[in-house]
């Protein structure tokens, strides 16, 4: 290592040790503080840079020495009867020694990230303990189920393609399950952390990310008993349905980033239209209050398996229909499958685009039709479960959104190359 690089490593080592030491000093740690942590980190850097061929032995000796000093300090606390049995400072001290070693061998990035995470974790003690204490049994089960779905089941599945049309890959299918459950779980955690502070706006946003259909059903049922809440319930339902467009764009961006070149503008136009509707509805209704829904755990194993089966079925049906009937059949499938689930058709369409089975223009049109179909389904749920006033609001707002989507399908560039115009003509002639 060059002399200048050594000096830089020592400077960064000192700064990172100072950062963690500052936090420990502020917490009045009796083991190590603002002076001890920089010294420990510098010791780690020097044992690596000065050890040359014996660096591994010298590093091990340094780590043992730090551990011995920490043990002596704790023994002294036990004798003074001030020992609190906490191990956080001791583990942080050992970790910062290793951070110093990483800086000594030029691993600056990982060392800086590790030190930053250490400082944040130390400082957020009360907040993290508060989060854990606020968890219910259902919340903990959700975390464990997410670990089961993403960290245990996924690695065990074969990464091979089976069946006709070569679209059924167990690993890829379950990976999409992990993606959908992960998105819903992030929104669910944020919703739980905010608790009672979630208002109608955030309630609609989180509802759209967790499950816009469940949000619609929950608020529709409230209006059946309290029709005076219909206006605000319609706003929340509209916000949740608007967020579905953002969720779709996130899924496309993760699964098929290149598809965004075709899908971004029309999907964003649809999104902007629905946002404008949300603003138009928000101002006269912003002072009303409703009861936020109690969302179910989105990481349950049974719904995850059901979605996996649904996604695989849609994937197979889309591939088969395209091969047998041509691309115009995809629009019918999107309209049917989108009634109950937009995610499955969105992910299957993105996968087909990645495999160059369909072009970008066809792909975004299929996805847009699915989102419009889902609006129809939710309007039907409102008609069955909600008040007449809520149905009136939802019918108008969803009707405007669907009309905007139809205009995009009819007039956005590229219609001639998709077969959609003939599909529309054939549908009209059948009527």
Low-confidence stretches: none
Give the proportion of residues in helices. Answer: over 70%
Largest sheet: number of strands, sense, barrel closure: none
| Number of helical elements | 17
- How many angstroms does the end-to-end distance come to? 79 Å
Keywords: Membrane, Transmembrane, Transmembrane helix
Protein name: MgtC family protein
Pfam families: DUF4010, MgtC
InterPro entries: DUF4010 (IPR025105), MgtC_SapB_SrpB_YhiD_N (IPR049177)
Give a structural overview:
It is elongated, with a radius of gyration of 28 Å. The chain has 2 domains: 3-130, no CATH class; 135-430, no CATH class. By secondary structure, the chain is mostly helical. The protein is 78% helix and 0% strand. α11 (260-285) runs antiparallel to α16 (388-411) and α14 runs antiparallel to α15. The chain crosses the membrane at residues 33-50, 57-76, 96-122, 142-158, 173-191, 198-220, 232-256, 263-283, 303-322, 329-350, 362-383, 390-412. This is MgtC family protein.
Q: Helices, strands, pairings?
A:
Elements lengths: L2 H24 L9 H14 L5 H25 L8 H17 L3 H16 L1 H10 L2 H20 L13 H25 L5 H26 L4 H26 L4 H26 L15 H25 L2 H10 L4 H13 L5 H26 L2 H24 L8 H11 L1
Helix pairs in contact: 1-2, 1-4, 1-5, 2-3, 2-4, 3-4, 4-5, 7-8, 8-9, 8-12, 9-10, 9-15, 10-11, 10-14, 10-16, 11-15, 11-16, 12-13, 12-14, 13-15, 14-15, 15-16
Keywords: Membrane, Transmembrane, Transmembrane helix
InterPro entries: DUF4010, MgtC_SapB_SrpB_YhiD_N
Protein name: MgtC family protein
């Amino acid at each position: 290592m060059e002399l200048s690089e050594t000096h830089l490593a020592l400077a960064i080592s000192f700064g990172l040790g100072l950062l963690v030491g500052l936090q420990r000093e502020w917490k009045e740690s009796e083991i190590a503080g603002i002076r001890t942590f920089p010294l420990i980190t510098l010791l780690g850097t020097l044992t690596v840079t000065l050890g040359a061929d014996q660096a591994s032995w010298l590093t091990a000796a340094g780590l043992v020495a730090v551990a011995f000093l920490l043990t002596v300090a704790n023994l002294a606390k036990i004798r003074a009867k001030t020992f609190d049995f906490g191990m956080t400072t001791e583990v942080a001290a050992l970790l910062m020694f290793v951070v110093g070693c990483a800086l000594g061998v030029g691993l600056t990035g990982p060392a800086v990230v590790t030190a930053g995470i250490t400082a944040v974790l130390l400082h957020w003690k009360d907040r993290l303990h508060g989060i854990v204490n606020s968890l219910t049994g259902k919340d903990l089960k959700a975390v464990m189920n997410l670990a089961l779905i993403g960290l245990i089941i996924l690695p065990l599945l074969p990464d091979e393609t089976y069946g006709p049309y070569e679209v059924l890959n167990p690993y890829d299918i379950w990976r999409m399950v992990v993606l959908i459950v992960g998105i819903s779980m992030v929104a669910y955690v944020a919703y739980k952390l905010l608790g009672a502070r979630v208002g109608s706006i955030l309630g609609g946003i989180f509802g759209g990310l967790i499950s816009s259909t469940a949000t619609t059903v929950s608020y529709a049922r409230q209006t059946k008993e309290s029709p005076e809440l219909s206006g605000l319930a319609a706003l929340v339902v509209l916000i949740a349905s608007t967020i579905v467009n953002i969720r779709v764009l996130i899924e496309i961006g993760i699964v098929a980033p290149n598809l965004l070149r075709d899908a971004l503008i029309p999907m964003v136009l649809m999104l902007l239209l629905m946002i404008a509707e949300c603003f138009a509805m928000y101002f006269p209704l912003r002072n009303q209050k409703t009861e936020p829904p109690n969302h179910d755990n989105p990481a349950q194993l049974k719904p995850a398996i059901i979605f996996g089966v649904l996604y695989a079925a849609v994937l197979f049906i889309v591939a088969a229909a395209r091969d047998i009937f041509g691309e115009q059949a995809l629009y019918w499938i999107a309209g049917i499958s989108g009634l109950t689930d937009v995610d499955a058709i969105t992910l299957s369409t993105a996968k087909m685009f990645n495999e160059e089975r369909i072009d970008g223009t066809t792909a975004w049109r299929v996805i847009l039709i699915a989102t419009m179909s889902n609006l129809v389904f939710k309007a039907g749920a409102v008609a069955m479960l909600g008040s007449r006033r809520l149905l009136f609001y939802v019918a108008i707002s969803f009707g405007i959104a669907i009309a905007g989507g139809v205009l995009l399908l009819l007039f956005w560039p590229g219609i001639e190359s998709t077969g959609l115009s003939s599909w529309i003509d054939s549908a009209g002639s059948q009527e």
